[in-house]
Amino acid sequence: MGVQTAMDDVLDSPTILHALRAADDVAFEAGRDPSVRTLRVLMSALASNDDIAAIAAVHALAEMHDDEALTQLVALLSDQRPFIREHAAWALGQSAPRPEAVGRLLALVIRGGFTGMLAQHTIERWAGSAGDAMAMAVEAALLGITDASSRASLVETLGLVPQPIATRRLREVALDDTEPDDVREAAIAALGQRRDTAGLEEDLGSLLAAGGRLAAIARLALIDLDPVPPAHGAHPRLGSHPRIGTNPGLGTNPGPGTNPGLGPHPTLGAYPPFGTPTGAGTRRGLTVAQLFLHADIDPSLSAAGAGDNGGIATLLVRLGDALTQADDGDVTRVLTLSRGPLQKSTVDLLQLAGTPTGHLYGHIPLAAEPVASAAAWPYRVTARRGIRRVLRTAGGVDVVHLRMADVGSLAAADVARELGIPTVFTVAPDPHSVMRSLEEAGTLTRDGFGEADLREHFWFRTHLVRTLAASASHTVFFPRPNLVDEMRDLVGLDLTSRGDRHTVVAEGVDLAVIDRAVAEVRAATAHAGGTDQTTTDARTLNHATAHPAAMSPALLELSALLSELDEERRGLPLLISVGRLHRVKGMATLVETWARSPLAERANLVIVGGDLDAPSRDEQDELTRIAAIARPHERPRRGLVLAGHRPNDVAARWMAAARFGLPELAAPGGVYVCASMKEEFGLALLEAMATGLVVVAPDAGGPATYVDHGDTGFLTSTWDAERLAHTIAAALDRAADHDARRAERAREVVASRFTIEGMAATLAPIYASVVAQEAQYAQPTRLPA
Predict the structure, then answer these.
(1) 328, β-bridge pairs
(2) Residue 91 is inside which H or E element, if any?
């Protein structure tokens, strides 16, 4: 079509998403015709006021592979627009090394953040062919830097240079007790990745003997040095190593046999080398790795709802259990990876190395304090090292399932590619749906796209979704209305091509947890005389007296929170919402909508989620917005309860209490409200429906596939406060009829289509088919004579 026509398509695109996809054509045409005319078109776009066209031009320059174009691209590293500098740092990774750019790229590395990550990635790519030059440039930069954080970033970058020239300086820094600990940690961690290992064990051993945090980093580096993945029960670093295996801080292996030294186990045997396809007869069942690095995942789900511990954290725990407990035995081991403290990550390795079956957890140490997902991109290298370590230690991993376009998936995809493990990727239109909602709401515009992209990394994340989908052996999709059209329009994927590699998989909830919650609350409130079918006046019902002995700790806790409300607020039904305190989840939007409408007179509002004691930046932003509407001392009078995060089973009981009410405190007939900008599927919504609550949900994405509008719930444009308020009012009207049959219909939808067991039963054959396909690829191909 020509570069001018392609650029016109960008400028004339009806939506921002269409413009981003049209930008790919600009890059293609620039690579096809790297002429003076093409360069002029791109430079004109760069000078325009259209941010999207300017960014498209940056990436198109990199595709020209022309000296003048690359000269212009390097110059953009000094552009006055920060978003242009960021995209230039990223785009240069597609080119051959440019010596004149290295200094400016390192300056971006020093500044850190997402831009620094992109610049570091470009340096890493260039180091493959020009490692000596990159190493000398980093060493030169270190001479003038005293700030510990900046030095640590440079040392980490030096560690990405594979050539031996970098090893000497890394060893010096690691052993230099005048260097800040952060800098030494970066050097020690990098030493575990070196190919030229002569003398490294002695250096790391001396650090190990010194104790403290540096010793813990050195221990992991020694594990990383192992050139061959360990067999189960015989890891030299974790078991019989004279310096590591006897460390009392590692504890004993809690896996089968509880062999503290992890010596050769009489029945576990040895798994095949990492990455080797394993068909029938090699061992029974598959090992699947799944990850979400922005949560502190544990079997008890104790941190659910805090920070980034949202529905995905709950899902991975339930799914891993369901896969390994299924009767068919297709999957006998699941590794769930998440973030965690340094010492915990080392202890995990013992269990991973010695346990061939079951649902196991591996924790990746990213930072001393939890980091929100949006701010975690600079930990790409740390994440990659941690993921590699866990997968190699576990051995025999057949498939890695990726789900998010985040730093964890970015790092895990690199590791899977390096070690020859196929991936399955769950494709969700994120950030695509958010961008569409923001554009429809008027808060994301073309002329302000550059600044928004600096904060949200829209361009990079949409690119990452396409890249992960393209490299996956199989892609999984959430059910959505008009799925084929939406994936084509939002993401640019054609599901009609190679349909055997695409599967729609509904997420699932643990119905047993919900049913127990419903039974418990029904029993605890039955003496009050109210059921789903009663029309008893709410105020009369709430004068009944509850029996504390019949109430679980979860219900007593909710009762205590509601008892803090002013007396005139008691006896109203509850609006309840469960989820993270994050802008995308719309919690502050819900509070604003409720407080500024007649809804505040009809119902109290309970928000379950967020770490109220030590909020993350995202959580604090939401709490600040909420405080502007209802200050803490006003909330009892106004009927607002901010409960903070609670375990999944506690949240289930609270949702059941919203349905049945609590004597003296809350009327029956509550409503569950999800005010998210977008909800790709909505696990908490499904749990609420299974509880029998009427739900309010976004009209875009997955909820439209299971919410029967006007019956089991209502769909609305959640970004429109007026529509949201009107819809919540309609839902309260619907819930007031106490229709047990409606509640039964809602539960049946979940029971028939959205259980965690059903999800596991759908995924297990997908994993098996991927492994079978990999086994075919591994067979020798006989060329025709």
Answers:
(1) none
(2) helix 82-91
Helix (H) or strand (E) holding 466: helix 458-471
Fold of the domain built from segment(s) 526-754: Rossmann fold (3.40.50)
Q: For residue 327, what are its two tokens? A: 């009767």
Q: Using CB atoms within 10 A of its CB, is residue 395 exposed (0-12), middle (13-18) or buried (19+)?
A: buried
Residues 401-428, mean pLDDT to the nearest whole number? 95
Architecture of domain 277-432+460-504: 3-Layer(aba) Sandwich (3.40)
pLDDT of residue 70: 96
Tell which CATH architecture fits domain 3-237: Alpha Horseshoe (1.25)
Report in angstroms the alpha-carbon separations of 562 from 13, 115, 543, 643.
51, 46, 15, 10
Q: Which residues contact 551 (CB under 8 A, 6 or more apart)?
A: 524, 559
Work out the average pLDDT over 164-174.
Answer: 95
Cα separations (Å) of 486 from 478, 482, 701? Answer: 11, 6, 9
Q: Do domains 3-237 and 277-432+460-504 have the same CATH topology?
A: no
Mean residue pLDDT of the chain comes to 87
DSSP label of 160: T
pLDDT band for position 148 (cuts 50, 70, 90): very high
What residue spans define the domains of the chain? 3-237, 277-432+460-504, 526-754
Judge whether 244 and 236 are in contact, CB under 8 Å.
Answer: no
Contacts of 238 (CB under 8 A, 6+ apart): 223, 230, 244, 245, 250, 262, 349, 350, 353, 393
Return all residues near 567 (Cβ < 8 A) that are at least 6 apart: none
Average of per-residue pLDDT across 578-602? 94
pLDDT tens-digit series, residues 440-498: 889 999 989 999 999 999 999 999 999 999 999 999 999 888 889 889 888 888 898 88
First to last CA, the chain: 42
For residue 419, pLDDT over 90 is answered with yes
Task: Give percent of the chain above pLDDT 90.
Answer: 69
Best CA proximity match to 232, nearest among 400, 392, 420: 392
Q: Structure pTM?
A: 0.86
